From TrEMBL:
Gene3D superfamilies: Winged helix-like DNA-binding domain superfamily/Winged helix DNA-binding domain. This is YafY family transcriptional regulator. Pfam families: HTH_11, WYL. Keywords: DNA-binding, Transcription, Transcription regulation. The keyword Transcription regulation applies. InterPro entries: CBASS_pafABC_assoc_protein, DeoR_HTH, HTH_11, PafC-like, Tscrpt_reg_HTH_DeoR_CS, WH-like_DNA-bd_sf, WH_DNA-bd_sf, WYL_dom.
Length: 330
């Protein structure tokens, strides 16, 4: 009985390996599969029948260019993923879960993936899903092992360390990691900087030498991760922070302005506040002007003065053009 059980396990492992091969490439010949699996073509045919019995649509074609091909069926059968593929899938699903499109479906897929994966991979999924927030759309690639190291540190509440550029130098940072945040362009880590005694956000693609330490910490009261990072990206890194009251709904303005360019907060029905950082007050003023909505400057005071200067300049530029004739009302 013990030998039979071992044979069964061997057959199962071989069939799963066969399924993985069929999912990797469009078509395989019987000799190619037999060579990969170290079995005879007859055993390959038997294993193909086992897959068909499980609901996989495996098509066999004859002649030159023929072979075995996994085709879509009426129902979606299970997929085989190795460890790296599973982690990459989780990262992609988290990206979708944080966006406006298919977010609920991505979260459901994450839940299913978490339920069926082996313990070692389920822990990786939970580390990511519990440590990532999002604003915006697609983002620059980051090494999966770096994301996983930071996600585990967030989950396990242990300190993290990494080297990070500061001006012309690269300095080692010690932090209490809180959340990973995905913007439309980059991954960020929101963490409490132990050397600066304050909350900071760090671009993950700029980190080197990332490691999780063994020292645990007690979580502090933290700001909203996505909002904090977005405000930093759109405003705090610039020398000027401009605030406007815009006569349009927050949803309308968010559709016009990239998330990395400005933070848009609803201020009632049909009114919103726009916060944007800039090195050039005239430039940010023109960006808000071309949105096409009525607005007023809230901060800083010099931005209001620039409005008058630019208004005079525009009036002067158009002085030589005769005004349009008025039409008489009937």
């Amino acid at each position: 009985m013990g030998t039979a059980s071992g044979d069964d396990r061997g057959t199962t492992e071989r069939v799963l390996t066969l399924l993985g091969l069929l999912q990797q490439r469009r078509i395989w010949t019987s000799p190619e599969l037999a060579d990969r699996l170290d079995v005879t073509p007859r055993t390959v045919r038997r294993d193909i029948e086992r897959l068909r019995a499980l609901g996989y649509q495996v098509h066999a074609s004859q002649g030159v260019g023929g072979g075995y091909q996994l085709e879509p069926g009426w129902e979606l059968p299970p997929l085989l993923l190795d460890d790296e593929e599973a982690i990459a899938t989780v990262a992609s699903l988290l990206t979708g879960a944080g966006g406006a499109v298919a977010g609920d479906a991505a979260l459901r897929a994450l839940t299913k993936l978490d339920r069926v994966l082996p313990t070692r991979l389920r822990n990786e999924v939970r580390a990511l899903s519990g440590s990532v927030e999002s604003f915006g759309g697609g983002r620059a690639p980051v090494a999966p092992e770096v994301l996983m190291t930071l996600a585990r540190a967030c989950r396990d509440e242990v300190e993290a360390g990494f080297d990070y550029p500061s001006g012309s130098e690269v300095r080692t940072r010690r932090v209490e990691p809180y959340r990973l945040v995905a913007s439309e362009r980059h991954w960020y880590l929101l963490a409490y900087d132990l050397d600066r005694d304050d909350w900071r956000s760090f671009r993950v693609d700029r980190m080197t030498g990332v490691s999780a330490r063994s020292w645990r910490f007690r979580p502090r009261a933290a700001p909203d991760a996505a909002a904090y990072v977005q405000e930093g990206v759109a405003s705090r890194v610039y020398s000027h922070q401009a605030r406007f009251l815009v006569r349009a709904s927050a949803d309308t303005v968010r559709a016009q302005v990239p998330a990395s360019a400005a933070l848009v907060r609803a201020r009632g029905s049909g009114v919103c506040e726009v916060l944007s950082g800039t090195e050039n007050l005239d430039l940010v003023l023109m960006h808000v002007l071309v949105l096409g909505h009525e607005f007023e400057v809230l901060d800083p005071p010099e931005l209001g003065r620039r409005c008058r200067v630019l208004a005079d300049r525009l009036l002067s530029a158009g002085a030589a053009v005769p005004p349009e004739p008025r039409t008489e009302e009937t």
